[in-house]
């Protein structure tokens, strides 16, 4: 499988399109959680205008009054075409897909299909905090297999976790984040094939969260889990929400390998009633007609990764940062700064910049923060400046 290179962007960088004043008019979580004097660089929302094909599709839908329940396979067909062009993968068979409300609710439904209450689910911390929240809420037991020091899957540690999870001969699942949030790691074809081999050996069912799949750095190859040898019994979740900033337009797709088709067929029909019909239309338009906008975004993110590396070296040389291969998130090791387990608190109280605390990401998260790169270069510069200033400022008392 070969990756089709990104074309040179034919559109302007969407990360440079909006002023901070305009962004502060937004009412979403990113812009309403903290006071106006706080610079928000935390939750995974992008500071971009929507791609024009998405705006046009949603506007046409609203003008038509087409706001009923979702139907048909247009989303799956658009994803299949995108996967073929982008990743050289012809694997997303439409008959082995199902629409779900969003990726995490899709993860819940897929895990329900292959495990029962009390069964173990393996994760690779530091990892997206809702993995812990959703799994424990559905009465699954989380088993950690931490990433290695290189922020990649440690296959020996993973095998030990598989062995532990299946010791009682019960059912077990492995929830893999691919690309990995928060580190931006892109798992290679060899790594994923090794995962599939271990899963088959121990009888562990793999569920792959691939929500960040469209957001990869230049020259990096994303490999869908279901495309590797041995992954036939795997399940995956994909969505246009991260690549095109569509979290508020709920929709995602569950995909099954050939050996998991019967599992996916057991998903309750009512799950498919949860996605937004308008969301499905928006995601379909993004995948089908929004690739020029996506390429402009990816080029802008590449610039922002380089900028952040330079700024940290200049202003915060004690911070360890390995530029991610994917996502628009940066994982920063701040342990050398002497700010304790939760440096995000200091950056917020003294620097008035909001970052995601590393602690909820599980083992390996203490002393770290996650920074959102999907904004303008000027905002990144201001964010790093505030972080550096926080090291010498007293805390700001919260406003009553």
What is the structure about, briefly put?
With 400 residues, this protein is of the alpha/beta class. The strands form 3 sheets. Strands 2-8-7-6-5-3-4 form a 7-stranded mixed beta sheet, sandwiched between helices. A 4-stranded antiparallel beta sheet has the order 9-10-13-12, with helices on one face. A two-stranded parallel ribbon has the order 1-11.
Detailed description of the structure:
With 400 residues, the protein is α/β, with parallel strands linked by helices. The chain is 38% helix and 12% strand. It contains 14 helices and 13 strands. The chain has helices at 20-23, 29-32, 52-64, 74-87, 103-114, 130-137, 155-165, 189-202, 241-244, 261-265, 277-289, 291-315, 343-351, 377-390, and strands at residues 39-40, 97-100, 120-123, 141-144, 173-177, 205-209, 235-238, 252-256, 320-321, 329-333, 353-354, 356-357, 368-372. Strands 2-8-7-6-5-3-4 form a seven-stranded mixed sheet, with helices on both faces. Strands 9-10-13-12 form a four-stranded antiparallel sheet, with helices on one face. β9 (320-321) and β10 form a beta hairpin. The relative contact order is 0.18.
Mean pLDDT: 95
Largest sheet: 7 strands, mixed
Give the H and E element order: HHEHHEHEHEHEHEEHEHHHEEHEEEH
Low-confidence segments: 1-7
Number of helices: 14
Q: What is the strand content?
A: 5-15%
Q: Bin the helical content.
A: 25-40%
Numbering strands along the chain, what is their spatial order in the largest sheet? Answer: 2-8-7-6-5-3-4
The total strand number stands at 13
**Radius of gyration, taken over Cα atoms and rounded to an integer in Å:** 21 Å
Based on secondary structure, the structural category is: alpha/beta
Shape, principal axes of CA atoms: globular
The separation of the N and C termini measures 57 Å
